[in-house]
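Reproducibility note. Readers wishing to regenerate the assembly model reported in the main text can use the exact inputs given here. Chain order matters: entities are listed in the order in which they were concatenated for prediction.
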Amino acid sequence: MAYVKWSFETLNAFCKDVFRKFGFSGDEADTITDVLLTADLYGIESHGMQRMVRYHKGLEKGTIHGDAKPEIVFETPISAVIDGHSGMGQLVGVFAMQKAIEKAKATGVGIVTVRESNHYGIAGYYAKMACDEGLLGFSCTNSEAIMVPTFGRKAMLGSNPIAVAMPADPYPFFFDSSTTVVTRGKLEMYNKMGKPLPEGWALDENGQPSQDAPRVLANIVGKNGGGIVPLGGATETLGSHKGYGYGMLAEIFSSILSQGVTSAECCTFDDKTGICHGFAAINPAAFGDPDAIRAHFNEYLQELRDSPKAEGAARIYTHGEKEVEAEQDRRENGIQVNDGTMVELADLCQYLGLDFSSYFPGYELPAEFAGFTGNY
Amino acid sequence: MAYVKWSFETLNAFCKDVFRKFGFSGDEADTITDVLLTADLYGIESHGMQRMVRYHKGLEKGTIHGDAKPEIVFETPISAVIDGHSGMGQLVGVFAMQKAIEKAKATGVGIVTVRESNHYGIAGYYAKMACDEGLLGFSCTNSEAIMVPTFGRKAMLGSNPIAVAMPADPYPFFFDSSTTVVTRGKLEMYNKMGKPLPEGWALDENGQPSQDAPRVLANIVGKNGGGIVPLGGATETLGSHKGYGYGMLAEIFSSILSQGVTSAECCTFDDKTGICHGFAAINPAAFGDPDAIRAHFNEYLQELRDSPKAEGAARIYTHGEKEVEAEQDRRENGIQVNDGTMVELADLCQYLGLDFSSYFPGYELPAEFAGFTGNY
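Running the prediction on these inputs yields the following structure tokens for the assembly.
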């Protein structure tokens, strides 16, 4: 597959126009775009604007209600429950995290659980919102079932990412990861390359280890059983029950406390996905001088980076360094988009009545592209 | 190695007397005993009363200050920082979790971070304290460095367990696990059996995978490098960076927010260990009707248990089931203690002037036992 690089500014302008055309206000389109492009800048393309087609499908199918506004249905000074009314996940997510931040600034902590939302992009975006305000930020979400619990053969949990961000220098601690061993995107990558999956990633429909990417992916799509194993693998030897446990934590803060739809059922409805999220912000000032806490954290992070490397390893990372470096690279050198995605974006322009060539001048679509197909 | 079983009541009476003899008050001895024997009942013998020798050593050496009382050094309605003054970890831990519970009942949430404590037993005990009060409970701790960060060869984090407990029926959700792939106790078990370690557990002094239990353990003791890998292994393929990230979370809530000693340095001092803990309690009532939330959770847990099993697997567990069953078994059939431990307990009796045979009637010590050796 060939790739082309576009500047952040190009994709940003395009993305905002697309969401305005879908009927979102200027502010809403800006918010959605910021969530998506942050993923691209961080090098997490699987969750960026290149999955725009996912949101188009949701809006067309009716699982995403473009005009819905999130509503606070329960609230205390330290907590809130939000009904997303099946609105865009990014808008629901930002609204909810803003609530958590507001509460953390007033009381020291804010915990917000959300039901009836939609795919919200990267969990880390929301954790980082709190971090940007000097707070410790958390976010998690449930999602379409893909994690098979230890000893099972049916996916009952989502990839259920948990993200945590905490202020530090020269860059924040930023941890954002699925509680499955890998995400579905990784399986799709191996599938496209025609390579067998690494051992320890996936299970077939009988709950047996499988390295057969097409088979596992077909089973996931067809809900025939199997899926991805928890962080820690398929058996207790490497800690399968631990990854499964972290997946449960994400579920508790998203679907359980909000009394929403669990991963076992979400994304099985015609008029909604039912996806649930969890958010928390904690003010370090609730534990003393935030500057002193930050300095103490900085010192430990530096000790980790400076600690002796394994033979053959050049560097020990602290969480968030890769994202900072990816962002520098992508702001300087552009964001990579593959040709398949470019075709999807051209389709989207035709559908919305936008001029593809004005956003992506000089880009030649493959000869076979003959206007909007709707088949993506 | 041969084993003998003793009733819970026998070990309970013995353990309480031992701690009273060490100079703790009746209440303090009861608390310490309850933490330790809960581990034994849950089947986590490595953290139970069978490691009593560890506490004896700490009290003798002066890293545990038997007469220290924990002190609140910073407090808000939702948070507290506690200086443990190097007291017994169990007493510090129970004091801190009681504070978190009190705050959660008053405000909805209580987060307490602790510095200058000691080994506190199983993290799950404290999470369960909150759960027993109808709250969502969390606890984590740092510990002597044993986890090698991804791409490293020097242990910089502890086993850093994270525990979460949440009310549910017919038994609570109870998740308690190290953020390393396994704990040191598992390595010691393989060492005693003379078996090679499973692949994916440990690193040698050069940061290379090793299945050589004696070598890895000798390196850990000698601080020569190497150690145990994070949950997710040594490389990013199976998610090493994720386990390392969860280890960092435990560090943030224990040593960072409390401005205490990080795992990189703790247990390297003569007059303290510096071990830090984190605790939180969250009131489900801050998110709606606690009974409705509990019922919703029960339903999901049952769906998980009922979901299709992998070929060859008989059962899917939810977290905490194994502990409930272990407790039933041990209350009925007794708690297993090995002969090596019995010798240690006899030694301890001689040291403290307690009558070993009155606690363990009919037990014949190995012929080579010739009174207190102090060599354990």
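We highlight two features of this model. The first helix of chain B runs from residue 8 to 21. Chain B has a mean pLDDT of 95.
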